Amino acid sequence: MTTPRPIAELSADEARRIALRAQGFLGAPDRRSGVRGILRHLGAIQLDTISVLARSHELVPYARLGAVGRKTVEEAYWRDTHAFEYWSHAACILPIEEWPHFAFRRRAYRNRPHWSHDLPDGAYDQVVKQLRSEGPLTATELGGAKKTNDWWDWSGSKVAVERALMYGEVVCVERRGWKRVYDLAERAVPPELLHDELDDTECLRRLVGLAGSSLGVGTRADIADYHRLKGEQVDAVIADSGLVPVQVEGWGKPAWADPAALQTPPRGRHRTTLLSPFDSLIWERSRTERIFGFTHRLEAYVPKQKRVYGYFAMPVLAGGRLVGRVDPAREGRTLVAKQVTLDGPKAVPAVAQALAEAATWVDCTDVRVERVDSPDLREPLARELIRVLG
């Protein structure tokens, strides 16, 4: 693909601030729209099984809005069929109005020749029939999720309902105790959205445009990664997506921006907060390094003896920079900072503030720091925590 001439040149700092504003971390958030507004603004919020302070889909709106109630978060996603779960960047909560634009992916799954699990004869029709007659059900209620205790050893009904989910005949309408609750798409998706009439090009054009507006500015790879598209899919539609070509200082690759992001300089108050490792601000490792000079890696699946920063190290955002990491845990009503990494003494107040706010949000009354990678900063951090906790 021939890249058109950039319409603007951005400094690295301008690109960073544009990205922060696009992701909801710079400027006052629209509290009237709440969690649902955050979901629409980001376009996708990743789900993950790990729960330390809270699950990632709760941490994402918290990072932008502050101490919003956890029950409020769940209700905002699932009540009144405001959202659905599907494969985007990974397993994600998506705004229900984007249902038509994932038709290209549903078609690809229907045409997929090979699957990890064999589908037993009759199982697909059986789960559809059961959902139609009994209403929303979990895999357990459909006949059992697993054949054995092995995580990936799915039962026939689980294979069938997951296949139906990928095809779009079934929708995940909520998570109950972390179990998916399935219902028929014909019942769960508003009638005006329940169609697969958009062709692949229309779907991809929309998702590329959404990714660009959610990122503010990004390379081809950044934009492709947001909804896990292929590079050639991006190339085919980006010229008609509404995004405009720009050049960013130090990036070394062509970039594209949301034209609305270029209209006004990004200004406003910065959020100070702990970030989920699955937050869309830091989804793509090379982008995080390029924008923030910060190497981010989830170590939950790394052997304990090989971890550098901890099991669920959460980056600390302050002043528009990533200034440290905290590996948290909870013991009763104490938030435990098992390991803290600070980017120098100037990061101490921000990390203390982020810990104190997170503790309050999860109903902890105390914060205990176990290890600080720079031992000389342990005492200053402890003093600052005492101050901000009152």
Features:
single chain; alpha+beta; four-stranded mixed sheet; 37% helix; 18% strand
Structure description:
A hairpin with a 3-residue loop joins strand 3 (83-87) and strand 4 (91-95). With 390 residues, the chain is an alpha+beta fold. It has helices at residues 12-22, 34-42, 56-65, 70-78, 103-110, 123-134, 156-167, 185-188, 200-215, 220-226, 231-237, 259-263, 285-292, 348-361, 378-389, and strands spanning 8-10, 45-46, 83-87, 91-95, 137-138, 170-176, 179-184, 217-219, 244-248, 255-257, 273-274, 314-318, 321-331, 334-342, 366-369. The chain has a 5-stranded mixed β-sheet with strand order 11-12-13-14-15, with helices on both faces. Strands 1-9-10-8 form a 4-stranded mixed β-sheet. Strands 2-4-3 form a 3-stranded antiparallel β-sheet. The radius of gyration is 22 Å and the shape is globular. The model has no long low-confidence stretch (mean pLDDT 93). Helix 6 (123-134) packs across helix 7 (156-167) and helix 9 packs across helix 11. This is Crosslink repair DNA glycosylase YcaQ family protein. Pfam families: AlkZ-like (PF06224).
By DSSP (H or I, 4+ residues per run), the number of helices equals 15
Mean pLDDT: 93
Low-confidence stretches: none
State the distance separating the first and last CA atoms. 58 Å
Helix content: 25-40%
What is the overall silhouette? globular
Largest sheet: 5 strands, mixed
Portion of residues in beta strands equals: 15-25%
* Strand order across the largest sheet: 11-12-13-14-15
Radius of gyration, CA atoms, in whole angstroms: 22 Å
Secondary structural class = alpha+beta
DSSP E strands, number: 15
What is the N-to-C order of secondary-structure elements (H for helix, E for strand)? EHHEHHEEHHEHEEHHEHHEEHEHEEEHEH
Pfam families: AlkZ-like
Protein name: Crosslink repair DNA glycosylase YcaQ family protein
Organism: Streptomyces indiaensis
